[in-house]
Specification:
This protein is an alpha/beta fold. The chain is about 35% helix and about 25% strand.
Length: about 260
């Protein structure tokens, strides 16, 4: 399996008038093509900062980031970034929201329009192409936001707590839904989340960060013996509790504050 992302000894600190606050320290990991990796850690440890560096929005103060062996700033790989809120524009229809990125990047062609319509059809939004975002449920809006990202054919998807704005029941359904879409499209994904259950139900590996300055405490491979490997089926599998407690133990070694959405007993 080819590696698509390589991070080696990455460091970052926040600077203000009072001095510097170290956020990330000696972060080293890689992600294979087609792999789904989740990052968990206490609040404020720099998880979202890590995604911003991979997206090229901020530069690391030390270390290197490479995409398929090329330095990030030289790479021609396409990075998709899905944020906590869907960022859909109310004055545009769902279809016109989906093709917004294509318009901005001057990629709107007959072929990419056909791909946008294909994705809307495959993932159940074809009947809502002319609807406005306010006419859709929160889960459907997130699905539209993901399609808007997928139509740009990203080589890697960065997911920054994309379900956190949803209520718990919707979050479970949408997590399962979007997890399957990413697998169906054979996309590489890196998810940042506070929710341990979400990480276990979606990821192939879970990277556990310490409190700030964040280092990698542990990397845990997640494997389930399931005929149909979906997020919902994982939550009901006997292995789920084992992984949850294993990650919980790693996170609470230093009294770290983390979000719990499942019992640990």
């Amino acid at each position: 399996m080819k590696q698509i992302l390589q991070m080696h000894d990455v460091n970052y600190a926040y600077h203000n008038m009072d001095g510097e606050t170290k956020a990330l320290q000696d972060i080293t990991f890689s992600i294979d093509e087609g792999e789904f990796v989740a990052i968990v850690g206490p609040s404020g440890c720099g998880k979202s900062t890590l995604l911003s560096m991979i997206a090229g929005l901020i530069k690391p103060e030390g270390g290197t980031i490479e995409l398929s062996g090329s330095p990030l700033e030289e790479s021609k790989k396409n990075i998709g970034y899905m944020l906590q809120k869907d960022q859909l524009f109310e004055w545009r229809t769902i279809y016109h929201n989906v093709i917004l990125g294509l318009e901005i990047q001057h990629m709107l062609t007959a072929k990419t329009k056909a791909r946008a319509n294909e994705l809307l059809d495959i993932y159940g939004l074809d009947k809502f192409k002319k609807a406005k975002p306010s006419e859709l449920s929160g889960g459907m809006r997130q699905r539209a936001a993901l399609i808007r990202t997928l139509v740009l054919e990203p080589d890697i998807l960065l997911l920054d707590e994309p379900f956190s704005a949803l209520d718990y029941q919707t979050r479970l359904t949408v997590g399962d839904d979007i997890g399957q879409i990413i697998k169906n499209e054979k996309k590489t994904a890196l998810l940042v989340t506070h929710d341990l259950s979400e990480a276990i139900s979606l990821a192939d590996r879970v990277i556990v960060l310490t409190k700030r300055p964040a280092t990698i405490r542990q990397t845990i491979s997640v494997k389930f013996d399931l005929e149909e490997d979906t997020a919902m089926h994982r939550r009901n599998a006997p292995e789920f509790k084992h992984y949850f407690n294993q990650i919980w133990k790693e996170l609470t070694q230093d009294g770290d504050d983390v979000k719990v959405s499942e019992p640990v007993s």
